[in-house]
Design a protein that fits this description.
Shape: globular
Largest sheet: 7 strands, mixed
Radius of gyration: 25 Å
Number of helices: 17
Oligomer: single chain
Number of strands: 21
Structural class: alpha+beta
Strand order of the largest sheet: 12-13-14-15-17-16-18
Strand content: 15-25%
């Protein structure tokens, strides 16, 4: 298989930040490509644009892998509300083949090219988080593609954005067969090598050949609790910081591993180029590998549809922890440990570097320009030298990534979108560094308030829910008080008193919006809260809308128990409510229409779909369940109206079942 010629395109195109005046696309080729962009707006003449150096950056990440970052300013704006077909043609190939030739899976049946719609406003949004390939469940992106396919001729029904609100990849939780595919793809594409300072394995090639390379990488990772003999072998016995993921057995380490992971997550093409070798495993791990292999094969079968969705809907993305590593920056103590050792700094930095190139750049190319230039220079130098990454230059880039303070971004529109960075600008607990940090520091929260002033309504993307399940947050607080915040992922807005207080005061400010829609993920279940400020008749209205995961879930018996206990312990008149920081808020949960009576948490992979009215208030909230049905979260008013109508007609209310 390694002797076969490589296809020109390995992954993409992905539609990213689109507007009538500018188009941003991402793809990966096996060589530097000469591309032409052809646009076919409905009801208007086609346009042909050659992508020269000012519109196309080609960045090598290996001998046969080139990132193509496409940013096209348009002197004549494109129309809104219409279907716009597009094609990327290979101008340096005979016949200038287009997408239908080199990626037919990106076209819907009977169509010769993919398309996009520039929505009139930002009132219809598709959103979700947490896509783990080896979770035994359906892929929400496949579900999203099925949903869009039914509406492909109705541009008015298309969402303005696909918002991916965290954990687009799991760098810290990788299945054995996925890691084998990653290593096979690294070899096939000749992805860059690197030196590994701080580990007794000298470089990336030695890492890939290490006996502990599969299911035992926690022995390679910086960790103060591993077996002493293994610590001696790989780290010279030095005390190391802790990587806290319970599933770090195959944690990604090198930049090449991270880049290969993205290609395998977003495109079916790389899977057809490799024949992964099964690693030599102890007998007790063979069965686990086989089980994971079955799930990974099902995941790969859905990738053509996932890629098609990403080629039709513009996407915006923000990291959460698993894009880098579990509990990333959870406490000041964690940061001191993790950034205090060169190997753990490298692991974290490589994952953030992959995020920059594959996710962050497409959100707002201008804000990422300086980092992209630094990465481009480093990778260009490495490609010319035909050697591994020079360690000093790599470390300098990773340090710049760590110090970057502009990962969050704003999308103007009706209503505007504010996407928050809740990972790198944390409110650290200086007196008790082992306690959870606030998700945003005081300066970042002040900037958030300034961005909100004067808006009538706003959509905020916060990877972690601003208003979560009180019982679960209470359990997390107990573990924090016991000095064990890492055991329960104590990552909620209320875990840090200062950050929570400032955030709640922002909502109470008289000049901030009257309507807030907060879109979140992270928790592996979905729910909706209607929120009002107590004792203020004209106060703002808030809606916490959480959709998680795209391909992940919460242990079912445990979630049902938490749901039931939360209803009992935090009922509207419960005195326990006065011991929470949210006591100035009146919170009304919405019941999913397919849930059992009283259940408020929906457990199932899929995507959230929210539709807003002219004032920025939710008109309809749904979960597109990947099992093939929709779940509505009707408002309390809709519930009452339905019950009144049922009573008036002499029939019982609707019976709901899962």
């Amino acid at each position: 298989m390694d002797d076969q010629p490589l296809p020109d395109i390995l992954a993409g195109p992905l539609l990213r930040r689109l507007s009538p005046e500018r188009l941003v696309l991402w793809l990966v080729g096996s060589r530097p490509l000469e591309l032409g962009l052809h646009l076919h707006p409905e009801g208007a003449p086609p346009r042909r644009l050659r992508l020269g150096e000012e519109r196309l950056r080609r960045i090598p990440v290996g001998r046969h892998a080139w990132l193509h970052l496409i940013e096209v300013p348009l002197a004549t704006p494109l129309p809104r509300g219409r279907r716009i077909g597009y094609d990327l043609r290979l101008e340096d190939r005979d016949g200038t083949p287009g997408i239908a030739d080199w990626a037919p899976h990106l076209c819907y049946d009977g169509e010769s090219r993919p398309a996009f719609v520039l929505a009139e406003d930002q009132r219809r949004l598709l959103h979700g988080s947490c896509r783990k390939p080896h979770h035994r469940g359906e892929d929400g992106l496949v579900c999203g593609d099925d949903w869009l396919a039914e509406r492909r001729d109705r541009p008015e029904a298309w969402p303005a954005w696909l918002l991916m609100t965290g954990d687009q990849v799991y760098a810290d939780d990788v299945a054995g067969p996925m890691l084998a595919a990653i290593h096979a793809l690294i070899r096939r594409l000749g992805l860059v090598d690197e030196v590994l300072e701080g580990a007794t394995v000298a470089d990336s090639q030695a890492l890939y050949a290490a006996p502990s390379g599969y299911y035992r990488r926690e022995a390679l990772l910086p960790d103060i609790t591993v077996n002493v003999a293994l610590r001696e072998r790989f780290f010279g016995g030095a005390r190391k910081p802790v990587f806290t993921s319970a599933n770090a057995h195959n944690h990604l380490i090198t930049f090449a591993e991270v880049m290969a992971m993205y290609l395998l997550m977003w495109s079916p093409v790389p899977w057809g180029l490799i024949a992964p070798s099964r690693p030599a495993l102890p007998e007790e791990l063979d069965a686990r590998y086989d089980e994971e292999q079955e799930v990974i094969e099902a995941f790969v079968a859905g990738l053509p549809q996932c890629a098609r969705l990403l080629a039709h809907l513009p996407s915006l993305m923000i990291f959460d922890d698993h894009d880098v590593t579990d509990d990333w920056n959870l406490t000041a103590e964690w940061e001191a440990c993790a950034y205090g050792h060169p190997f753990s700094r490298r692991i974290i930095g490589n994952a953030l570097w992959g995020y920059l190139l594959c996710q962050g750049w497409g959100n707002d190319p201008e804000r990422m320009a300086g980092l992209i230039e630094q990465a481009e220079a480093l990778l260009g130098e490495t490609h010319e030298r035909e050697e591994g990454l020079p360690a000093p230059s790599q470390d300098a880039l990773l340090e710049a990534l760590r110090g970057h303070r502009d990962w969050g971004f704003r999308v103007p529109g009706t209503p505007p979108l504010l996407v928050l960075d809740t990972r790198t600008r944390r409110w650290r607990n200086e007196r008790r560094p082992g306690r959870p940090s606030g998700l945003m520091d005081w300066e970042a929260l002040c900037e958030l308030q300034q961005a909100l002033l004067g808006s009538e309504s706003v959509v905020i993307v916060s990877p972690a829910p601003m208003f979560g399940v009180k019982l679960i947050e209470g359990i997390q607080k107990l573990f924090v008080l016991a000095g064990k915040p890492l055991l329960v992922d104590a990552e909620n807005w209320m875990a840090h008193r200062g950050a929570a207080s400032v955030m709640l005061n922002i909502f109470r400010h008289s000049q901030t919006p009257g309507n807030y829609v907060i879109l979140s993920g992270d928790v592996h279940y979905s729910f909706v809260y209607d929120i009002r400020i107590r004792h203020r008749r004209q106060g703002p209205r808030l809606w916490q809308i959480t959709s998680s995961g795209i391909k992940n879930g919460f242990p079912e018996p445990l979630l049902s128990t938490f749901d039931r206990l939360n209803r009992w312990l935090y009922a509207p008149r419960s005195p326990l409510n006065w011991f929470t920081q949210r006591r100035p808020m009146h919170i009304t949960p919405r019941d999913p229409d397919r849930a059992e009576a009283g259940e408020r948490l929906w457990n199932g992979s899929g995507l959230g779909l929210v539709e807003l009215d002219s004032q920025g208030r939710p008109a309809r909230i749904r979960q597109l369940d990947a099992r093939g049905f929709e779940v509505d979260f009707p408002s309390p008013e809709d519930r009452e109206a339905e019950a009144d109508q049922a009573a008036a007609s002499g029939r019982a209310g609707p019976k709901c079942s899962k």
